[in-house]
Amino acid sequence: MSRQKCIALIAHDEKKDDMAAFALQNEAVLAQAKIFATGTTGGRVLEACPSLDVTRLKSGPLGGDQQIGALIATGEVDLLIFFVDPLTPMPHDVDVKALMRLAIVYDIPMALNRATAEHLLDFAGD
Ligand SMILES: O=C(CO)COP(=O)(O)O
């Protein structure tokens, strides 16, 4: 039997409402997966969908992006959904870039906006 899929969810502050709505809309598919999320994002996802299996890591600026990156490096993430805010400077921009870099290095499907995330979940739900 193949192991349960693992999905990482992250959203910058301006995109958190979008992430909560996305989680609610796709709750049935997300319920099949183990979810890792950065701290605040995970809290918002759990508020929207309390029954999901969400492990909350540190908040992004405090190391959460790096924790997700480490999980990618150890082969524990199958899909990264990261709603990025391209209009706000981030103090932890280097961490954001490092995470995206690892997703590319390990060839993990990565959605950086909602439109792409919907497509990826369509495939994951098949
Ligand atoms: O900053 C983030 C990603 O770079 C997200 O972290 P939070 O989910 O804790 O806000």
From TrEMBL:
GO terms for molecular function: methylglyoxal synthase activity. CDD domains: MGS. It holds the Pfam family MGS. GO terms for biological process: methylglyoxal biosynthetic process. It catalyses: dihydroxyacetone phosphate = methylglyoxal + phosphate. The active site is at D65 (proton donor/acceptor). Its EC number is 4.2.3.3. Residues 1-126 form the MGS-like domain. One of its GO terms (cellular component) is cytosol. Substrate binds at H12, K16, T38, G39, T40, T41, S59, G60, H92. Keywords: Lyase. It is an enzyme of class 4 (lyase). Catalyzes the formation of methylglyoxal from dihydroxyacetone phosphate. Belongs to the methylglyoxal synthase family. This is Methylglyoxal synthase. It comes from Shinella kummerowiae.
